[in-house]
Amino acid sequence: xxxxxxxxxxxxxxxxxxxxxxxxxxxxxxxxxxxxxxxxxxxxxxxxxxxxxxxxxxxxxxxxxxxxxxxxxxxxxxxxxxxxxxxxxxxxxxxxxxxxxxxxxxxxxxxxxxxxxxxxxxxxxxx
Length: 127
Known about the structure:
Structural class: alpha+beta
Strand content: 25-35%
Number of helices: 3
Order of helices and strands: EEEEHEHEEHE
Shape: globular
């Protein structure tokens, strides 16, 4: 991984409101234990990450957006490539941040992710 590595995030349909992805897509939930799962874009394409994710019937995604490792670092969010539970897995570590800090940083990340937009959009793919 380097500063330009894209960190691929699956976008749950519930994170899309009025056609726009909300900051919830980049905010860990309590079950995440402040570690937001992403795919290491150096190891897998956006489309293949979506296919991998949605191969589990319990996992839903309408597409893939991303932020770079550099953009996370600018927000003082550590990126940890852990390879668990699959080789391409990494996470954004929001540990030791207040709820307010997490919400502010998630808003910055979704703004960054919206600049290039969808890297894989199920609605516009030719599957």
